[in-house]
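[Solved] Which block belongs to which protein?

Original post:
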Amino acid sequence: MDLDRYLSTIGGNLVPLGGLALAVLVFWLLIRRVAGGTAAELRAAYKKIAKADVADWQRPFMLLATRERWHELRESFLMELASRLMDIDKVIEFVVLVERNGLHRERFRDLARYDAETAMRGVSNALSDIADGARGRTVKSARSLAVLIDPENPKAALALAADYYGAKRFAEARDLLERALPLCEQMLAATQEREALPGDTAEQTEKRHGELYEMLERAADMYEDCMGRV
């Protein structure tokens, strides 16, 4: 029996019979042969999951959990990621970016040990770091995903707002700044002891605080200008 037909036959019964973990294991064994690192290969794997009558809300999680090396991560960590991404195009964009930069290996394994909010802040920071060292479309993709995964991350939001401002997308920049400016101020006030953030060294945390101070000053000027243009 070919793979497509087998998935279609057993898919609807996987979750009731053995729970989500069993479904992930079976799918991982079956679709890993087509799982690759490109958007097209990921979409092919997703189509196989969809054919098995898996509920819509489970599909993003299943795609993450059946990736090579990702299935070793905590189920709760992957479910939280999937719930914040949801849209399959965003999931695929996220996986391609993460795998290209190797975040799903050591860094995600470390972050998966923390509670959901702390872990997602760490993922968001990791994506912001990628954006800082990238060019072109990767910068926009990494920053947008960083804000999507953790809307309360002030550095990610301020950086994306600056991108919008530079592109003369003043209304979008203003909306982000209205949320990010108070978050930035609160974060700086609450973390004066410079405690290391998840996945960061103390030096990286200190660097983030310095960047936040600089970004806060610039963001206030941007916000004033946006208010005069929108």
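(Second protein starts here: sequence line, then its structure tokens.)
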Amino acid sequence: MNTKYADLHLHTTCSDGSMTPTELVRHACEAGLSVIAVTDHDCVDGVEEAVLEGKRLGITVIPGIEISVASATETHILGYGIDIHSKLLSDRLRDIKEVRCERNRDMCQKLCDLGFEITLDEVKKNATGDLFGSTHFAATLLKKGYVSSMKEAFDKYLAAGRPAHAQAQCLSPEEGIELIKRAGGGAFLAHPHLIRVDDSTLRSFIVRLRDAGLDGIEGYYTDYTPEMEEKFRGMAEEFGLMISGGTDFHGSMKPHISIGRGLGNMRIPCSVADAITNKFEKIYL
């Protein structure tokens, strides 16, 4: 009997991926995945299309989102099994979009101050949806020859702590969790290593979020070492939290990451997805 696999952290052209929702589902199917989650940044515009294509191809698509929340570095909350038609969710995503626009203006100004000739209109051209952000800034820097790779753009200029990074966010971590919960979903802390704090601080932060309603931690992720996987899954077990897992696939925007396989060796068993769908997924579509 063939083992079935999942990927619960994927992006489409509705945020900063290179594949449309339909293309993403077809690509996942071709890669042999059985369950995926569409988790675009601060956006659910591609979910319904992906779910419908999943039904046609026989692959389960979990309605999801990745919400950016305020922190000194980078903190994202994944939502699974959400009602994408929730009015509360729609209203708050509109607020988030306005703050994202402010953040983009700030990022553009910082790059200009560093000597780069770059405009928001140029960056928008690298986005296919209404939302754009740091990945599209990186693509613009690459296209104009200022950097040799997307990774270099982030490492030198755009990542947390770098000179063009912009931090303005609409929601606190607790508010992000509450929004997901009120939209009927489960809230999971994405890639906790990118919060870039020591283990003691991270543990305290996770406990704080658990007490605010956090349901789980991303226990599988492209950049994790075996030691990190063990640590984060251990924290989940210690604090009574579930685990999720995903590659953070963006297509050609992050070409080194393969769907379902990350850097090549990753495999997320469907039991991880099953635990999430059994607890959170309802029929909204």
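Accepted answer:
You had them paired correctly. Confirming on the second one: The longest helix spans residues 87-113.
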